[in-house]
Amino acid sequence: MNKTVKKVFNIIIDVLIIMVLIISAFVLIISLSTTNGGKGVPNVFGKAPISVLSDSMKGDKDDCFNKGDLLICDVAKDGETYKTGDIITFRADLNGDGEEELLTHRIYQVNQDGSYYTKGDANAIYDQADTASPKLRSVYPSDVLAVYHGTKIGGLGNVLNFLRSSQGFFFCILLPMIIFFIYQAIRVIMNVIAYNKEKAMVAAQEAIQNSELTEEQKARAIAEYLEKEKAKAAEAADAADETDGESEGDEASDEDEV
């Protein structure tokens, strides 16, 4: 029973480890993947996984999406143009902090110069050039990083964002990996101990077998020793008999002289 429980436990641990490794590889690929023209959109075999940061595209249309969703977009190709209704991803300063974030909005107008005016389906106004100016943002085809065609995974964007954060990376990836290596080290040590124990048992069995041969040798040596001792005892007995015979002869001589 204990062996069965131990086997099931090891299988569960191995499955969890595989899942952690897959998630780690996924996050690593997204973080270090080739970008489209160096503009910062992940490129995984022509697909761009993009996390939704706001509800600006929330709506009733089939291709709308919500905050926290993960969009599977197609990486934009050089020279590609777009039309009204297409949903494109580009970079924009959303918070006015000087740093640009990925923004995925719908094209609502194609301008004569080939640029686009975009807007979130849930927003009342078009995207502005910056937060301090009412001027509309003109997005050119060269600014488009990816195109969304309706493929999304609900809620996975939040998970991905958390995994890419320092806390998420530590608790969900780094810490399980540390535990995994410790667990594997313990398993290696236990296997070494078990191997040494088995090796010691084999050596003990060989010693027992060898000791049996030694006992035979000892028995043979003991028999030879007893035979030698018996022979010595016989010689000593013969010598004693000869001594007694000489003593009797001397006594007889003395009686004759008297």
Describe this structure in a few short sentences.
With 258 residues, the protein is an alpha+beta fold. It contains three helices and eleven strands.
Your description of this structure?
The chain folds into two domains: 36-162, Ribbon (Umud Fragment, subunit A); 191-258. The protein is 51% helix and 18% strand. It has helices at residues 2-32, 156-164, 166-257; strands at residues 34-35, 42-43, 47-51, 70-75, 87-92, 101-110, 116-119, 128-130, 133-136, 146-148, 152-153. Strands 3, 4, 5, 6, 7, 10 and 11 form a seven-stranded antiparallel beta sheet that branches. The radius of gyration is 47 Å and the shape is rod-shaped. The N and C termini lie far apart (102 Å).
Strand content: 15-25%
| Approximate helicity band | 40-55%
Q: How large is the radius of gyration?
A: 47 Å
Q: Give me the number of helical elements.
A: 3
Low-confidence stretches: 34-38, 251-258
Mean pLDDT: 78
CATH homolog superfamily of the largest domain: Umud Fragment, subunit A
CATH topology of the largest domain: Umud Fragment, subunit A
| Helix-strand string | HEEEEEEEEEEEHH
Please outline the major beta sheet.
7 strands, antiparallel
Based on the coordinates given, report the CATH architecture of the largest domain: Ribbon
Oligomeric composition of the shown chains? single chain
The overall strand count is: 11
Structural class: alpha+beta
For the record, the CATH class of the largest domain is Mainly Beta
